[in-house]
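User: Assemble these into one structure.

Assistant: Restating your components, then the assembled model:
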Amino acid sequence: MVLDPSTLPDVSDLTVGILGGTGDQGRGLAYRLAAARELAALPGADGNLSGGDNGYAAAADLVIVAVPWEGHRELVASLAQPLAGKVVVDCVNPLGFDSHGPYPLAVPEGSAAQQAAGLLPDSRVCAAFHHVSAVLLADPQVERIDLDVLVLGEDREAVAQVQALAYRIPNMRGLYAGRLRNARQVEALTANLIAINKRYKAHAGIRVTDL
Amino acid sequence: MVLDPSTLPDVSDLTVGILGGTGDQGRGLAYRLAAARELAALPGADGNLSGGDNGYAAAADLVIVAVPWEGHRELVASLAQPLAGKVVVDCVNPLGFDSHGPYPLAVPEGSAAQQAAGLLPDSRVCAAFHHVSAVLLADPQVERIDLDVLVLGEDREAVAQVQALAYRIPNMRGLYAGRLRNARQVEALTANLIAINKRYKAHAGIRVTDL
């Protein structure tokens, strides 16, 4: 089957906020989405996007949650009201690290995304952007990022918006990859990509084959 | 980093047995590995490989466990003695299915592979071949299978053998992807690939990018 991103919604006018935009992944996503969107990602942004003001970021149409796992629950819960009605994209990977490297942490709700969905009953929560390398995202020498963004969620229209957002970054595709109950392994797979990066000195992402 | 499969061990003389070789995935793997190995995969095999006799399969040098999740524990436990000292490759995906599609089942040991490792203390247990489409494997019209096999395990030499085995199938690569404690999400990701297959009418696999 040939993918046809032209069937996805137009997200060029959508404002995007990033919670945790000062962290590596959030800053990289902000830079990359702003570049793809001609520096118009956030209202008032002048090319120097910042997610430092989480209240400000939460005022956007679509809000990406890129905060550390520690504090995820508290931060998301505190923003339930401003995030009501919005598409919220959780890209948090609950991982621990010890002398043997990274490993997935147990999450009572199953996954960071399911935790967010439970805390934000009036938002349209999706999960995506787990595997994008913060290093590649933030490197202005890297023009294209060869990977697929796996998008999970229950709300088909919200999922399609997030897919469309991924497609705005050169060489990225945004693919529907299941319901939120299947988010845990997508988050946890980041541990495997870190193991791959360490072994092969890479910034690994994944592509889905046969499409 | 450029991958160099020539640094992997030569597995051309290794005999490969498949437990569960009559199931879709096991039969497909048997067909494909036999084709790659000029029909010499199993001692005495005449191109019509069968995993029907699990005791026979367990006599090989390297044994792939491709049985249904139901009964995995009992079967593996029953073969602890013949599997002692061997490389055992678990490729079982513990999944449930309901009206919303596939989802990962909880496994007390963490993953099918960790369960096998616990039951086979004298074997060298790896996890691999979770995402290979049984349909593509078994289709003689399909000459190349574009995907990467993620290989997990604690025993570096055993992992390298399994990587080398994957490389024998045209267009496949075998990549180290972490320790067994990171097998769960690799097994569970099969649920996402099934969701992708359903949405996009595909036989999805994954490729790791940037290497």
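Confidence is low (pLDDT under 50) at residues 39-51 of chain B.
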